[in-house]
Amino acid sequence: MDKSKREQFINQMMGYVTGAALSGMIYIGDRVGLFKALAGAGPVSSTELAAKAGLQERYVREWLSAMAAAGIVEYDAAAERFIFPEEHAAVLADDNSPSFLAGFFQNTPAMINVAPRVAEAFVKGGGVPFSEYGPDLVVGIDRSNRAQYQFHLVKRWLAAMPQVVTCLQNGGRAADVGCGSGYPSILMAQAFPQSRFFGFDVSEESLERARADARRKGVADRVEFQRASATALPNNPKFDVITSFDAIHDMVDPRGVLRSIRGALADDGTYFMVEPKAGDTLTENMGPMGAMMYSMSTLHCMTVSLAHGGEGIGTAIGPTKIKELAEQAGFTRVRRLPIEHLAQAFYEIRP
């Protein structure tokens, strides 16, 4: 046995244990408002932060110690005060920042909580349905993506397809499949007041969030959210634009969904698909991003599909699989758009 290799692996594993523990602490800090209380506060003591946030000082002190030891906050030992750099606040405290990541830490406990059920599926088959993950997953997914949509959907992503922009400017019909909490449809309705937008999902909890948000944003008269299976989309009249955001790889019947999208799309329409940025093979996906994708797939994306006897494509859906699904559904043009993004890939798919 190579002892140095073993020691290196031990350190690697302990790093993962530390990361898991810190994920819980970040979840707590986000949930009880500690990051927001720290943002812009300057150097503070645990007593001052506890008073500002309305929390118990002993818990806040221990939480701050973990944050300081991890380098998430800075610690002035002489003054016994903690500082939250503005660069870190943009990532963990500002929901409107394009760098915001705290939503992912709201997702993580929801997925870890079902790990025992997933372990059972390893033995017995099947999976864990979406309904068993609880509200934190619904809200966390929404928060994880909102800033990206807010800053990039209209100005960068849709702008890469001029025919889509022109259509929506002139009053088209657009649908979002697997719409979740509906934020992309709401943003597009705000940007293109001449068009009508529809969101389809099977989660009534998500749809209620979407409807409430549309009312708050003043676009409920032009955005309609309906409970509908993605394999049975309304197709009369046809839609000029159909979108899906990180949804196809989760589907029970992705091939049926693509056929349904093709049937609901006008012959001169555009289907805009956003999926995780993955290669076609394990070799291409080696590294931290691949490890995250395969782990999240096992704990959520794949098992949700398998729970209903689905295909279980999983999170790491590569471009070859996407092209295969689209062509089988009757599409003839599949183009990966030249949009740079750390974690997402973008496809323009046309009849």
Give the SSE map.
Blueprint: H1 3-31, H2 34-38, H3 46-53, H4 57-70, E1 74-76, E2 81-83, H5 86-92, H6 102-113, H7 115-124, H8 135-157, H9 162-169, E3 173-177, H10 183-191, E4 196-201, H11 204-216, E5 223-227, E6 239-245, H12 254-264, E7 265-276, H13 288-306, H14 319-328, E8 333-336, E9 344-350
Parallel strand pairs: 3-4, 3-6, 4-5, 6-7
Antiparallel strand pairs: 1-2, 7-9, 8-9
Helix pairs in contact: 1-4, 1-6, 3-4, 6-8, 8-10
Describe this structure in words.
This protein is of the alpha/beta class and 351 residues long. The chain has helices at residues 3-31, 34-38, 46-53, 57-70, 86-92, 102-113, 115-124, 135-157, 162-169, 183-191, 204-216, 254-264, 288-306, 319-328, and strands spanning 74-76, 81-83, 173-177, 196-201, 223-227, 239-245, 265-276, 333-336, 344-350. It has two domains: 3-94, Winged helix-like DNA-binding domain superfamily/Winged helix DNA-binding domain (Arc Repressor Mutant, subunit A), CATH 1.10.10.10; 107-350, Vaccinia Virus protein VP39 (Rossmann fold, 3-Layer(aba) Sandwich). It is 51% helix and 15% strand. A seven-stranded mixed beta sheet has the order 5-4-3-6-7-9-8, with helices on both faces. α1 (3-31) crosses α4 (57-70), α3 crosses α4 and α8 packs parallel to α10. The longest helix is centred in the first third of the chain and has 29 residues, at 3-31.
